């Protein structure tokens, strides 16, 4: 994939991760993100692992530490919400935020009792702090909502979160 990958030796050593552990994985036509999701879905050497992105480098660490690797991104949702000063605008924004919290890694949002995710709106943009994997899911949901022309004045789609868009990034994402 041409992506730099670093093992977080500090946290892996602290978790008693074996220095030499052999793993193999055979996938075809899979993105790096999907391969890492599959590879790290089960404990390796007795340690639950995860990954995140830090300074453009994929970092493999303990799952707990990887979940702390968050980034903040801004998403333009002006076409999905009412203009400033419009009655019901705040309720619509709240509806969109609730929809995302209920659709993407529900257990991670700080306002829902999690330890990772934050979401706020400013001038028609959502400012979201979340893990790299969660941002991929958020982008998919927002792309889908943009494509169907959804806005907060209309009822939200009744699509269960488990049947949502793929969590595997498109190439170039």
Notes on the structure:
There is one protein chain. With 173 residues, the protein is an alpha+beta fold. It contains five helices and six strands; from the N terminus they run βααββαβαββα. The chain has a three-stranded mixed beta sheet. A three-stranded antiparallel beta sheet has the order 4-6-5, with helices on one face. A hairpin with a 2-residue loop joins strand 5 and strand 6 (125-131). The longest helix has 16 residues, at 132-147. The chain is elongated, with a radius of gyration of 18 Å.
The largest sheet, given as strand count, sense and whether it forms a barrel, is: 3 strands, mixed
Global mean pLDDT:
83
User: How many β-strand stretches?
Assistant: 6
> What is the gyration radius calculated from CA atoms?
18 Å
Please give the count of helices. Answer: 5
Question: Which class do the helix and strand fractions yield?
Answer: alpha+beta
Low confidence ranges: 166-173
Morphology call: elongated
Q: Write the H/E string, N to C.
A: EHHEEHEHEEH
In terms of DSSP E residues, the strand content is 15-25%
User: Reading side by side through the largest sheet, how are the strands ordered?
Assistant: 1-3-2
Query: How far is the first residue's CA from the last residue's CA?
Result: 13 Å
Range of helix content: 25-40%
Topology, element by element:
Blueprint (H helix, E strand, L loop, with lengths): L4 E3 L1 H6 L17 H8 L9 E6 L2 E6 H4 L3 E7 L12 H15 L14 E5 L2 E7 H16 L26
Parallel strand pairs: 1-3
Antiparallel strand pairs: 2-3, 4-6, 5-6
């Amino acid at each position: 994939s041409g992506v730099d990958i670093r093992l977080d030796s500090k946290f892996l050593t602290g978790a008693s991760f074996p220095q030499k552990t052999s793993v193999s994985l055979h996938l075809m036509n899979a993105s790096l993100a999907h391969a890492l999701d599959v590879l790290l879905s089960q404990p390796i050497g007795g340690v639950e692992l995860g990954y995140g992105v830090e300074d453009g480098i994929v970092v493999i660490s303990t799952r707990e530490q990887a979940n702390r690797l968050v980034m903040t991104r801004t998403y333009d949702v002006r076409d999905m919400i009412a203009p400033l000063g419009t009655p019901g605008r705040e309720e619509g924004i709240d509806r969109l935020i609730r929809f995302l919290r209920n659709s993407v890694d529900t257990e991670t949002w700080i306002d829902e009792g999690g330890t990772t995710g934050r979401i706020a709106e400013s001038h028609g943009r959502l400012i979201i702090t979340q893990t790299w994997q969660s941002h991929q899911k958020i982008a998919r949901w927002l792309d889908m909502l943009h494509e169907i022309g959804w806005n907060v004045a209309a009822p939200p789609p009744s699509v269960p979160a488990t049947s949502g868009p793929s969590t595997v990034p498109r190439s170039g994402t």
